[in-house]
Amino acid sequence: MKRILLTTCMAFLLVVAYAQENSYIVKTKGAKHKAELQLAEAEEQEQESAADFVGQNFKFYSLCDWKDGMKFMVVPDEFDLVMKTFTDAETDKGVSSMKLRYKIMIYKGHETDTDGHDHINFLCQDDNRMYYYEIPSGSFDDYCFGKLGVPTLAYLGDVDIAREKLVGKELYTKTRDYRIDTEVDGDGYKDVLVDKDMQVKVTAVGVGTRSFPVKIIVEDKDGNEFYQNVAISKTNCGMRDEEFVMDKAKNLFGNSFELVEDVMSINSYNYRQFLGKVIHTKFPTKMLNEFTKKIQAIPRLTEYQIEAMTPHKNSDKFTLKLKNTTIGTYFYIDMLLDEHLAEDQTEFFGYLFALGPGKKVETSEGSRAMIRAGHVGIGFSEDETMMAAGEPDKVILSDNGRYTWVFQRSNNKLLYVDFDGSGVVTKTYTRDGGRAGVGAASGRRKAAMTNSSKMSVARGTPLE
Q1: CA-to-CA distance for 287 and 324, rounded, in angstroms?
Q2: Contacts from 362-365 at CB under 8 Å and sequence distance 24+?
Q3: Which of 105, 167, 253, 331 is 20–30 Å from 262 (CA)?
Q4: Dihedral of the CA atoms 416, 420, 425, 429 (nearest 10)?
Q5: What is the pTM of this model?
């Protein structure tokens, strides 16, 4: 009896050690070591908004379509521990699922033995031995059309793809029910409640259970980790579609998580078609300057590259992150893609921006530094001045070709910029004052000033 007990303990410790070394076994932070196995079958779910992500990346393989080399992991549940799912091909003896737990099985086709029974064959990657699962009744062709599959096996193809596609990505939580691990060396877990529609980051992806093979661990902004085991392609899941209801509904990927990228499709608009595009302002506006943390006046024909488009929660607006192609500074502004939803036309992306390059502005390294800070320097050209301060609110013409641009500042001060006859800044100064009324403008400025006076400025806000 002592020998049996010792052998059992040694087998258990080997399984624990293997689990800790196996990169497919991942745990949330704070899991505690515990010398007991508490196997718990996880639950999963799916969501319509994630159908594209799942459909494009995760193919369902019916047992009839399994290909040589497909990888699975033995992840038995409590019932499987007392059953011998696999048989050693060399000895024709059943093998305990406990012994094979967490071992990787590579599919090697199927065959009919001399007794007329059909076998599904596997090569164990860990011990290099052949094992088979004997189909309970009927032929392989009869059996493979059902969703029964092979018990205990979690499909690792989904895990590998999910690792590649999701680790480091931002998701939104789509349910409140998740879990945290309570054991490093076992399957202990605790249910936790989190906020829905919370943005989280994927920190790890590993194996879950046979029915829900992809374990996705995420972290919130406060560093708290939790996870969900989800079914994605449902290859060898062993569950029918209609079984993903009630509590198990959350174990479909789309019912637990939503990619931030996928949220970028509001009112059938595909945000991703705009990412990386070069655009320019058609009218003067105002945007948040990331460098100065202040709202800055932006002139027409300023060129940007679209860096990101982040949808607002519970709103049709999105925050546009733009990189100025001349000075490299990032700017932010809130926009709408649907003109019919805009109360003011200046909120509509297509009104304010146009695709394609804007006006090319030549700047020196020194002037670019001042422009990023929103300062106008002596020697600036008109274009450099507008990049730093925007379109002037007023133009004052003087004799001998000299003129002054006046800008209304947010602190109720007026900025005066004097130009010589060749359009070079000779002097800048500020004065207290009210609104800078639009005065006489040079011919080349009239169109811009007219457009500016007709529009109400779109408000730029930081990401919330």
Answers
A1: 12
A2: 363/326, 363/327, 363/387
A3: 331
A4: -30
A5: 0.52
